[in-house]
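CORE FACILITY INTAKE
Project code: CF-77B
Contact: R.S. (postdoc)
Sample description: multi-component assembly, two entities in total
Requested service: structural model of the whole complex
Turnaround: standard
Below are the sequence entries exactly as provided by the requester. Do not edit them.
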Amino acid sequence: MSLRVLVGVKRVIDYAVKVRVRPDKMGVVTDGVKHSMNPFDEIAVEEAVRLKEKKIAKEIVAVSCGPAKCQETLRTALAMGVDRGIHVDIPDADFEKVQPYHISKLLAKLAQEEGIDLLILGKQAIDDDCNQTGQMTAAHLDWAQGTFASEITVDDGRLKVLREVDGGLETIKVKMPAVVTADLRLNEPRYATLPNIMKAKKKPIAKKTAADLGVDLAPRIEILSVNDPPVREAGQKVESVEDLVTKLKDAGVI
Amino acid sequence: MAMALCNKLRPLVQNLPKISWNQRKLLISPTVPARAAAAVRCISIDPAAGLTEEQKSFQSVALNFAKQEMAPYMRQWDEEEIFPVDILRKAGSLGFGGIVVGEDVGGSGLTRLDSSVIFEALSQGCVSTTAYMSIHNMCCWMVDEFGNSNQRHAVLPALCSMEKLASYCLTEPGSGSDAGSLSTTARRDGDHYILNGSKAFISGGGDTDVYVMMVRTGEPGPRGISCVMVEKGSPGLSFGKKEKKMGWNSQPTRMVIMEDCRIPVSNRLSEEGMGFQIAMKGLNGGRLSIASCSLGAAQASIEAARDHLKVRKQFGKTLEKFQYLQFRLAEMASELVASRLMVRNAARALQDGSPDAVPLCAMAKLITTQRCSWICNEALQMFGGYGYLKDYPVQQYLRDIRVHEILEGTSEVMRLLISRDLLQE
């Protein structure tokens, strides 16, 4: 097989950072805060690279949408083994208001332009936890989708996807072209090696804009406010089960 | 990165993993919210400052490797004196085995500055293991720089991947700072040298494969010294008992003993009489790496102390509100940045082959190793009684970096080199 694979990578606030709400309560502080590739996207990149190593994929392209700093994220993907990158340049101010709806349109257009057979995305981004982009992109393209994948195998020219769903595990077979979203247990992403980081410098990153791809970035959702979750209150210790039941009744819980 | 996230989530699905220092801290001080043991906002001490995008990538890989593969085990390696060969091999596969060695023999072909950045990052995971890696790297560089084509191709590929490990053998029971007076002899016998003598305090000794050794082939003094490679298993090569040390416990330290040890003459690097120069040139880079390891320990200690000051309360407020501690933290941060600049400046000088490289490397090691020991000590003090417990890592950083003021040239020898430059005619 010689699939052409497109992988989406998003630059998000690093998972280990303690996020703080901005004083204007319209978002979180991102200035000077450590960012890295969305962990689920790392898993997606790793899966694509493994497909290439198994000679199932012929070429892997990574795409990232956002301001110039996204190129760092693309370089990380290139250092993991992706062949080339596409940066859809969206300035900071606009990017704040961009939603999965817009990203899915951008990805759909790129997938068509690049003649992609398989689009692998992380199942969700750890900053907004939307879990929508993969599904929306498949809808725009009218492609099959295998979401929450914890295993992908090629079976008879089709893709067998093992999905982690609420009820347990589900195996489906999808015809390509298809969209797959990566879940936690799909694989363990590799570290980039020093030689690969050096090689990544020479790999090309093409630049595009939303206008080039004919996508309107006007927001469909307006953020009203962003607040800290309520401060956790101290619990109460009770002496007996009767006490507990009384307290629960008083609180209107039972 | 994804792997660390996977590791955090896995307990929900499977058995609890081995408890790391971070997790233990969460159990001991439950007032600490789940994600507080986190990355720091402190921009002034950010080790990424002033680096190119590429260098930041190297640093990022090294830091992730340190946090995921080394930090969770650094305590166990120290307490049980485990030499983590599997982790070294993993590091080798990422290109950390021969960082400045030529790419044609499996090295990564990077600069001294890249190397310093990498060791500083790895050191946050485990100083002792990183320090061993730096010694291994030093040996690889010596073979790369002074070996002939046959030697380079025969020995370096396996060393760069860390499939085989190296040790640096200069010091003897009777010659430490006075290295030029070493007494291990190498007598020529046809196509072989017969070695007699012993080397002391050899890092990795007994568990490594290639010993880059300075031996006396000629007249007394530095000019009679040559550099040879001795392979483990050579007839007449044996090792002393494993030393018990204050720190650096994840690497074995033993005496290396040669009793009519026979090695081929083709194992000699460069010409007879070049050994002392080779040893000293190797040490210039080694000193930068050791200083870089001290930087990493100091960085981790400052971050740990900072987090502690925000959490620990006494006299009705968190420790961060006390001006004494605020000022002390500021001093620690300033000393760290000053030291880091000295190391990176010396790295550039060494890379460029500039004439001030030797005294600059000496200055960098002198200042950095002392200041970082001070920083770790102050950080330990800020932890109060907890700092003294092995449950908390600052005591290990402190113990591990203490020896950096001694080996690869004591602070006193550093002063010697610097004053020589200042006073020579």
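Facility notes:
- The interface with chain B takes residues 14-18, 32-34, 36-37, 39-40, 42-43, 72, 75-76, 79, 126, 184-185, 188-189, 191-195, 197-198, 200-201 of chain A (CB under 8 Å).
- The longest helix of chain A spans residues 39-53.
Invoice: internal transfer
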